[in-house]
């Protein structure tokens, strides 16, 4: 908090708009704080009120919660993008001294911790038993899965449209067949009626004696 107060005091002396403080603020950060800032939503990083509130909320908790406790109690927040959560968890891990970036047992445990807390059962199911070497390997796999989901989602409206068109064509074909069948039935009925009329009508002939 003392560092933030000093930063704000100095920036007020520059008479620049508060939202322009955000870039200077980011350039002032180091190590875990820099990684923490990078995972923030774009709007938060560009709006000083949101950025300063997020900083206070995150770093004031240090006084009541250790870095390791924050890391092991982390969970993906509602509507938080899975990649943003991974970046946030990575920042927690760095602050907690978890050595996850170069492979090894801690890296595997970090990957498992992410999958257990990311609240994405589809992602967890596809990656839980995958041979993930390190966090960078995990990031590539996640991006591949998300791109595949996006392509599938983009195709679905087209598939539904084609199915609807096919259904329309089938319905129209069915109606045409019904109309044709009715027309044939009518023709047959008319033919039978005509034949019946011919059979019951009196026959007349020329040259008969009566």
Automatic annotation (TrEMBL):
Chain segments carrying region Disordered: 149-210
Lineage: superkingdom: Eukaryota
Entry-linked InterPro entries: Retrotrans_gag_dom
Basic and acidic residues bias spans: 149-175
Domain Retrotransposon gag: 25-97
Name the UniProt record assigns to this protein: Retrotransposon gag domain-containing protein
